[in-house]
Amino acid sequence: MSPGPSASVTGPSAAVRQTFDAPLPLERWLERSPGVEGGRALGLIGIGINHFREVNAALGHRSANRLLADVAERLQAALSVGDGLPPGEPALTRLTGPAFAVAVPDVIDAAALYELAERLLRAFDSPFPVRSSAVSITASAGVVQLPAPVDIDHALGQVDAALAEAKQRRRGAVLLFDPASHRPPLDLLSLRAELRAALGSDQLTVHFQPVLSLDHSGVEGVEALVRWQHPTLGLLRPEQFLPYLDRSRIASGLSEQVLDTALAELRRWRTEGLVDDDFYVAVNLTATELVEPLDHLLEDLLDRHHLPAEALMIEVTESGLLDHSGSSPRAGHGLRDLGVQLAIDDLGSACAPLDRLLAWPATTLKLHRGLVGRIATDEVAAAVVGGVVSIAHSLELGLIAEGVETAPTAEMLRELAVPSGQGFLWSPPLGGSEMRTWLEEYRAVIGPAPEHGCLGCTGHSDLRP
């Protein structure tokens, strides 16, 4: 949220706001819509304002409510004019809290719904007038496809789940919800019990994705990513189960196991001469875990594997730091005193104020994949990345672009002087033995790894880490 001069704001007039009718709750709209529970398919787009609690605290309840009315007015305007709207008469409805849903009868085409969701998020591009100033806010969108027949309770649960997952994984952008990968909240207790039983077993594995220097000078390190080989659900990626464990003690036990495994692999690669002394492994932790002192645990693990502190990088997401801005800097300084590297992950996903982020004593910034993926075709995204490059250079911070998937993107990053990158252009996340093979083959090749196809890949079909 950022204040600015009211003269630069475009928004509904006072007269429009006075006559504005709040949209129906989604549940009531579904009950009134003919044929929804009969033979009609339905597309749903959940739209939630990011960090609205902070907005509400800063503005006060009455001004925050007026802001919600302005948001609804802009969303309605986006559905009322212009080309590119799908058929089916999209309807704006309300969800609970600072959230809305757009219902599109008879349309479940993923591309059409995704395009409409992006159009709706563009309603947040300009500031909103609040009293004598202006407020900039962002939103996330989750897209749901519901083939006929549609059950109302199921539809409500799906759009809530889609929006929650969008805020977790694609904050500030659009997420196409996959119900098959979603674990309903009702299963939370059993999921925690299953994960507690899985700790220390071979169900939990660590995969590694290399980070490369974009000037072709070599591999700098790897990011460690946990996978859960669930006995009935198959291979689960971290975003499919970690969000439900963030505040549980199980999450801390899982992180310790991942740290131990990752450092053991790094020790092995060093002993075998596959990596240089400045090669590091990065491990993601939640900001919640930083509330408890970690320096003693990390010091013990590093000593156990005979590794210097700078061989470990701890990553915390931008949104996590924003949600725990009070305690995170103190914990970060303790880790920096130990000598561990610190990274702000998913930079650009939550539109957090830079001054608050940089209170965290980071050594490295990691650009969000959604921002990186647009730089070759979006001048604004390229300008944002260029600005981050200047900040990182001025503050002597490392900078890594995540989600590099095409050669044009990599070339554009080089032109913008981004020093490092990771992504499927070079390799998907690989298991420990596969990563070892990748490193062996990489070292055997004169020059950099090829930018089409990856060394050491063994038929992985998933397209994202």
Question: Which features characterize this protein?
Answer:
Alpha-Beta Plaits, 8-stranded mixed barrel, 20% strand, 16 helices, 465 residues, disordered N terminus, 2 domains, TIM Barrel, alpha/beta, 5-stranded mixed sheet, disordered C terminus
Question: What is the secondary structure topology, with strand pairs?
Answer:
Layout: H1 14-19, H2 26-32, E1 42-49, H3 52-59, H4 61-80, E2 91-94, E3 99-105, H5 110-121, E4 128-130, E5 133-135, E6 139-146, H6 152-169, E7 174-176, H7 188-198, E8 204-213, E9 219-230, E10 234-236, H8 249-271, E11 280-284, H9 295-304, E12 312-317, H10 318-323, H11 328-338, E13 341-347, H12 354-357, E14 364-367, H13 369-372, H14 379-394, E15 398-401, H15 407-415, E16 420-421, E17 430-431, H16 432-444
Parallel strand pairs: 6-7, 9-11, 11-12, 12-13, 13-14, 14-15, 15-16
Antiparallel strand pairs: 1-3, 1-6, 2-3, 4-5, 8-9, 8-16, 8-17, 9-10
Helix pairs in contact: 3-4, 8-9
